[in-house]
Amino acid sequence: xxxxxxxxxxxxxxxxxxxxxxxxxxxxxxxxxxxxxxxxxxxxxxxxxxxxxxxxxxxxxxxxxxxxxxxxxxxxxxxxxxxxxxxxxxxxxxxxxxxxxxxxxxxxxxxxxxxxxxxxxxxxxxxxxxxxxxxxxxxxxxxxxxxxxxxxxxxxxxxxxxxxxxxxxxxxxxxxxxxxxxxxxxxxxxxxxxxxxxxxxxxxxxxxxxxxxxxxxxxxxxxxxxxxxxxxxxxxxxxxxxxxxxxxxxxxxxxxxxxxxxxxxxxxxxxxxxxxxxxxxxxxxxxxxxxxxxxxxxxxxxxxxxxxx
Length: 309
Fold this sequence. Notes:
This protein has two domains: 32-76, no CATH class; 90-308, MetI-like fold (Orthogonal Bundle), CATH 1.10.3720. The protein is mainly alpha-helical. The protein is built from 15 helices and no strands. Helix 12 crosses helix 13 (260-269).
């Protein structure tokens, strides 16, 4: 297991370096002058030259890349040209809000998705299974921003149950709509994966033994079968958790939720190169860590994976 972990960590570092390099190249190839965008069109050439020197934009791209990588290795992520703050402090400040949204959305998705999946497997072929399949198809197909706007129109504008957008610390009413929007697609995916995994092992010997003992279908599927079908469900949950923690851009932007996703959009609109690269690397790092954790959990749920590793 230790050799496997070392290999995965080395591969993760290579992935992060590749993501960082690609992000840097794309920001350099973006049209327009970053300094002129930040300073404004009426700024004189002397002021532009001083700003280029302060931001390090007077050097060639290769030199800037080398200096940037060297600063990263020393723990210096750079300073945001828009907020005039270190980008690391901006990410740390926004992370708790994104984490709160991610935990709420994922909790709703796991509980609802696994419950729906078990019911669809138990009552497969009936109207319950068909109804759940139709709901999950809608959840997977509908765009996230459209679902968010629909929920705002129904729950906020029509019934006035919840605030349409914003963030107020401690007021959970502002959390419900973005968490529902973010979690609905995951509910659909987890439901379909759970149903498919349970149906796939339906003819296993241990399930036949459980039926011979006279156990109820819910007990058979919910207790015995679900553990053996956990690996594909864990994969979906891990991917969704990575996207949640890295900041769901559309959801946070629609609901005005001040997390990492909204910070990334603002950085792109302001051509804040240091902040863009930091957000991209941070998102990639979250994905890598979550997937590494899910791979290690495979060995907990399936001893065969642990022995092969």
